[in-house]
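Late entry, evening session. Most of the bench is empty. Finally got around to the prediction I had been postponing all week. Sequence below, unchanged from the version circulated by S.P.
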Amino acid sequence: MDNAAGQIAGFIARFAPPMQKRIRDARSALRKRLPTATELVYDNYNFFVMGFSPTDRPSDAICSLAANAKGINLFFLWGARLPDPHGILKGSGKQVRFVRLEDAKMLLKAEIEALLQAAVDQSETKFPKSGRGKTIVQAISAKQRPRR
């Protein structure tokens, strides 16, 4: 297990077992959907976040999974620009929108797949066509809210 994988396993282990499974499943589903993405990981005060970017620059990320003790959200970093004919995106800011994920199977829904595809298509920096993405642990907060 490389250092990033070990760190991420430790971050996830802080959550209650059912939430650990939800996080791992959602992460796995997004890794399959975006196989060439660079995964940017943050263990912040409020949330454990995994961003998905075509590069190692956070500003290029298109979406992220954010987990806390209460659940997991899929954030679209430019969600306000995305077509949302089914009205599933939540939030009212000028840029970010999100979907609450009850489980990883939601990522397979046509409505969410369409949002992911639109986010990929609208990304100014394109994802590599081949290869495998890498994982980078960007930040670890010394102080955190309880994860259970």
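Two things to note before I forget:
The radius of gyration is 15 Å.
The first strand starts at residue 38 and ends at 43.
Will write this up properly tomorrow.
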